[in-house]
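Researcher: Going back to the complex we discussed earlier. I've cleaned up the inputs and rechecked each line, so this should be the final set. Can you rerun the prediction on the complete assembly and write out the structure?
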Amino acid sequence: MELTPIRKRAALQPGKIRLNSPPSAAAEETPCTQKTIIGARDFTFYYGSKAGVENITMDIEVGSVTAIIGPSGCGKSTFLRSINRMNDLIPQTRTEGLLSVGGQDVYDKSTNLVNLRQQVGMVFQRPNPFAKSIYDNITYGPKLQGIRSKAKLNALVEKCLKDAALWDEVKDDLHKSALALSGGQQQRLCIARTLATKPRVVLMDEPCSALDPLATARIEDLIEELKGTYTIVIVTHNMQQAARVSKRTAFFCLGKLIEYGQTDKLFTNPQEKSTEDYITGRFG
Amino acid sequence: MQTQLRQALNHLFTLSCGASVVLLVAALLLFLIPMLKKGAVAVLFRGTVEFRKMQAEQFDRGNEEALQKEIEQTAQSRQEIYAILDQFSRGIDTEKLTDEVKGLYRDYGDELRYKDTPKEQYTKLRSQAKIIRNHLLDAFESIDKTEINEYLDAVKVFEKGNSFSGTTVEKMFAVADGFQKTIQHVDLSRRGEYAEELSVVKEELYNLFGPRPEEKTPQLAMRRFGATRWDVAQKHLSFLLWQEKWVRSDDGQSMVSRKVRRDDPQYGSFSGTSLLPLFTLVEETLDISLKPRFTFYWQYFIDDSTPGHYFGGVGPEVLGTLMLTMLAMCFAVGPGVLSAAYLVEYAGDNLIVKIIRICINTLAGVPSIVYGLFGMAFFVTYVTRHPGILSAAMTLALLVLPVIIRASEEAIRAVPQTYREAAMGLGAGKFRSFITVTLPAAGPGILTGIILSLGRAAGETAPILFAGAAALAPIPDFGGKWWLQETRALSYGCYDITVGDKLAMMVPHKQFGMVMTLVMLVLCLNIVAIFVRSRMSKKLRGA
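Model: Rerun complete. Updated structure for the full complex:
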């Protein structure tokens, strides 16, 4: 039931846009000194006739942590979910503009969804481990990739759990049900599960909103450790969190990208009025 | 004031909920206990010596020696009863007597020829025997006592002559003697009436004690044994003792129908005859003649029954029901779950899907007889071309399909979207995420649908009525095309016994036994399914 996006191909004159390079006007506004991995050009996402996000143009640099903040219903999650096409589950949606990951047009007909989603992993708002053992949860993705070797899988499980800082807690009962873990542990397991497919990008959709402060702190530490190896895009309602973990921050409001820049600059010296209002808590 | 009212309403709600649960349990017990009690009689009852004889002969069970001893013990009292019966029936059953005398006359002729009697003597003796025969036949036909005595006296003249001593003719004299004794007590004008009543008495005695020792074994298995159960014996005893008669009412004006004993001195058919002692004798010695003993007949559930439902168990019915149910489940579960998956995961929300959904809901409410007729008109006519297990199972599958689709649809829909998202986020396609994540999570819900339909498939009668159930079908031959053979089933057997009115009166243990077996079978199947489901949901909860 993949809906073919109706796209304004004509507007994007082929040849002029070269992905992975920042020649566009938008890119100049938010200067990219590093290599870009996710690039959006006038990207618009429609639910039926209503636009979820409108004319987003932004580049996300490789190996960095990018935070997306904004009031509820501003399109943060919609944009995030567009990156690995999780929005396909919702019927009657369409897109305009261009969104690319690693030089590959995400909404192109030829895009292999399985490859895309393995390259762009996702961690959800609520921990959602499968009702399987910890081991099976982590090997789910690799098995889909066709890895069958027991030794390889074992090594992978250990590595992912160590990367997700969960190994010490669960190493003795890997075959226990994942649902027996605490909420924070479950969320770290979900991150480990995502890492097991060796993604280039990890999308996090408010990963700490269902967790207590202690578990949140651990996840934030984890994000700190993971950056560099993975490109992380995190949607959050918590502005302190965004300030703590991210290098760059994007502020969305009413489906539009209002401001995008270095996190410290955006929080200390916002260019837009609405950004300042939001950050200082005057609305939202 | 308002809080008080609210509290009162809360209490009322709790109370009514509790009351309805109590009511439900009470109704269930009210319905189940008498049924199970009646059904339990099939397994736990007082079995007679005839039952043990049947078990030995039909199923090779029990101790042969002990059985023979028991049979000998019962023979004594039975013999006394038979003696009375024989003596009386000699006078009544004149046709039999006529045949006997004619036979004896023929035998005598053969005897004479065999001895190479000289011709003159032969002619003389033969003509004398013929006179005796004719006198006897005349005596049998007459209804006047003095006339009969004249004939019999004429016969006795020859007896004194001594020329027949040691020959077959002596037997004719014995018959004459017996006849003379009997007619002293018998109202010959009522001979026809006696004969009719006597045949009832004989039939009931047969039902009680089976064939007489000197008789040859009957061909039909159900005629080989008497009453195998004490309660059945009691029933036959009352048929033997009591008759319904029109008698004058106490005011002497009108006639009323009343149950009277056959040996009642005023109204009984046999009042004043030599048969009278038989009735009290049978009644008093019944436990000696049948030797009832408490029996736990657990083989009831696996035993075949002899042609008819009289003896044995419900083995073929249990087997047939299990086969039909399992086969129907095999046919229904796969398509049911797949179509539910299609409806939830693939089909959008358009008009056609809505129509399909309405159709499924309607089908779930269609009376089962409609499925039965469809099964006959389609599966039997076009698919299997023969009523049998396969067509019956397919009809049942069709019956439970909507139930399974609906339950599975709800279960699949109830799986949180986050599960699917997680699987898809890891790169699984629709099919993989359904098989590996959604289906296991929906498992308990789907099993609930299967449990519901299992009970329905096992218990339905109408769908298999025309499609492959038969009351007394043999056990399918698993070497051949067993799926084309008709089968017995508990539900159908129950129905068949109940509508076969006379049979139901005779084999209540079969009728209620089948109901009990069916309930227990469904219970067992459900317990297994519920066990599997609880294991499944436990795993899903992470315990």
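Model: Worth noting: Strands of chain B lie at 44-47, 242-248, 255-261, 293-296.
Researcher: Good, that matches what I expected from the previous run.
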